[in-house]
């Protein structure tokens, strides 16, 4: 499911919302409860975004594709 980034114009914070593409144009509510928000550029499938699990963390052998196991 794509993620969309919003910014709250009431408190200035940014937040992400995961929602179907069919609902991409719907208004989002700030985590603090404000509804004066604007949608920013889509952050769909960004890697290295900080919150994604690291492939090597589970020891599942996912690191051998990048040359780190030579
Ligand atoms: Zn807010």
Structure write-up:
- This protein is mainly β and 70 residues long.
- It has a domain at 1-16 and 33-44.
- It has no helices and 3 strands.
- The chain has a 3-stranded antiparallel β-sheet with strand order 2-1-3, with no helix packed on it.
- It starts with a strand and ends in a 31-residue tail after the last strand.
- The mean pLDDT is 78.
- Bound molecules: zinc ion.
- Residues 8, 10-11, 13, 30, 32, 34 line the site of zinc ion (ZN).
- DSSP strand (E) fraction? 15-25%
Number of strands: 3
| Average of pLDDT | 78
Shape: elongated
Question: Could you give a short description of this structure?
Answer:
This protein is mainly β. It is 0% helix and 20% strand.
Helix/strand layout:
Elements: E1 3-8, E2 14-18, E3 37-39
Antiparallel strand pairs: 1-2, 1-3
Structural descriptors:
elongated; three-stranded antiparallel β-sheet; single chain; 70 residues; mainly beta
């Amino acid at each position: 499911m794509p993620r969309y980034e919003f910014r709250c114009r009431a408190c200035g914070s940014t937040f992400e919302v995961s929602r179907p593409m069919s609902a991409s144009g719907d208004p989002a509510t700030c985590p603090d409860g404000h509804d004066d928000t604007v949608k920013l550029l889509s952050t769909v499938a960004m890697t290295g975004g900080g919150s994604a699990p690291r492939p090597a963390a589970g020891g599942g052998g996912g690191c051998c594709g990048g040359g780190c196991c030579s």
